[in-house]
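User: For a benchmark we're assembling, each entry needs the component sequences followed by a predicted structure for the full assembly. Here are entry 17's components. Please fill in the structure.
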Amino acid sequence: MTDQSLAIRTGGVTKVFRRSPAVSKLKLEVKKGTVFGFIGPNGAGKTTAIKMLMGLLKPDAGEISVLGLDPQKDFEELKQRVGYVPEQHLEYRWMRVGELIRFTSSFYDRWDEQMCRQLVQQFKLNERDKVKWLSKGMLAKLSLLLAVCHEPEMLLLDEPTGGLDPLIREEFLDGVLRTVGGEDQTVFFSSHTISDVQRFADTVGIINDGELLCHLPVETLLSGTKRIRLVVESGKLPEEAVIGAVYCHTSGRESLLTVGDFGPAAVEKLKSFAGVKVLEVIDMGLEEILKDYIRGRRQSI
Amino acid sequence: MKMQNVMALLRKDMRLSRMVFLGGVAMWPMPMWFTLAVVCKLYMIDPAASGRSLARIAGQGVTACMMLSGLMVAMVVGHLMTSERADRSSAFLSYLPFSRREALVSKIMTALALATAFLLLNIVLRAVVLHFTDMGSYWREYIIVMLACGTLIFGSTWLAGTCFRSGAIATAAGLAVPIALWMSLWLSHFEEPTGLFLLFVTWSVGLGVFFFIAGSTVFLKQRPEG
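Assistant: Structure for entry 17:
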C-alpha cells in the first residue's frame, strides 16, 4: 500500500506511563475513505493511541503518519484536516452554543456555514443555550458538529457514544454518516458498543493491554473466525491443535476452540488428531470474537 | 502567527476574565468608601476640622485601594492563567488549530490590558485625592512604587499560574513574593535603611520581568492538555 492511499500509518508506536506500557509497538495502516473501528476493553490503550494520532501525546518510540503529516511537527495543519470528538466533552461550559460555534469556526481556514446551520437544526441545538445546560447527548452532538463543519478529511472519534442512550446513540451515528459522505473521508472510531462497530466499520482493530491483537476487514474477521466444538476422548486437546488458535476453553471432554483462520484445512487438521471429533462449527459475532481474542491473550499470559 | 486566531483567543480570554475583573472593580474602591464614611463622620462631629486634614485621612483610603488593586491584579492574572486547566477546558483548546505562541500573545494582551486598567483606576483616584492634599510631592514616588510592585505581582502570579492549576495558589504567590522581598530587604538593611526604596524598586522590576519571561517560556514549552 502506498503512503498516499493511507490515512494513518503507524510503526512500532509505544507509549509508557509510569513504567507500564499503555500502547506497545502499535502497527496500524488505515486506508483513506474507510471506516476503522478500534475496539478493546477499558484501559486497552485506545484513547492513548488516538491522542497520539491527534498529536496530543508524544509517543516514546515509533513513527506516526496521519494524512501524510507528523502529528508532533505538523499539528496545526493536522488539526485543520482532522476532526476530533473526544470521549469527554470539555468545551467551555460558560459559553453559549452559538458563541462556542463562532469561537471554534474562527480557527479554521474552511467552515461550512450551511452544514453548521443544518446540523444545529437537525440536532435541535439552541444557540442561546449555555453549554453547561446541555445534556450528555446534546454535548456529544455539539462536539460532532464542531468536529465536522470544517470539512475534515478524517474524523477521529474516541468512544463518542459512551454513556448515551440507544436513541441518542443512533442519532449521533446517523449524524456521523450524514456528514462524512465523501469518498476520501476516513473515520477512525473507538467504541465499546460492538454492534455499532459491526454496523459501520469496514476494518476493525482489536487492542488489549496496549497490543494490537488483530487488524482485519470486518467481513474477513467474521468469515474467518469460527468457534469449533470438539470432543476429545482423552479430555485434553493435543498442544499442536491449539497452536495458532485464538482461544481454547475445555470443560470435561468437550473443548471450544476459536480459530482466526478458519477453512476446510483447519477442520481437517483437527480431525487428523487421534481421539478428536469435530462436532460443530459455530459462527461468531464481533462481540464474541473480541471476547475470545482478549480471553485468549490472557490465557497465553 | 495568524491575527484571526489571536483575536479569537483574545475575545475568549477577555470573556474568561470578565467576571473576576468586574468583581475586582466592584471591590476595589471599598476602602475608599469606608474612609469617606469616616471623613464624613469626623466632619459631622467637628465641622471646624480643616479640609486638608480630612483629605489626608481620605488619602489613607487611596493607599488601601492601591494595596487592594495588587490583590485584584493577582486574582485576574491567576484566574486567566489557571482557570482553563482547572476546569480542563484547556483540553478542548488543544484540539483547535492554533499555536502556543498565539495563545501566549492573547494571554499577555489580556493580562496587561486588565492590569493597566487597575493601574489607571489607581492613578485617577490618587490624582483626585492629591489634588486636595499637600502630598503632591510624593506623586512620582507613588507611581514608581506602584509600577514596580505591580510588575512583581504580575510576574510572580504569571509564573505561578503557568506552573499550578490552582488560581488561589497563583494569587497567593503573586502577593507573597513582594511581601517576602520587602521583608528580606528591610531585614538586611535594618541598620542602614537608606536606599531601601530604590533597592526595592530595582529588585521588584528585575524579578517581575524575570518571572514573566520564565512563565512565558514555561507556557510555550507546556504541552496542550488533551
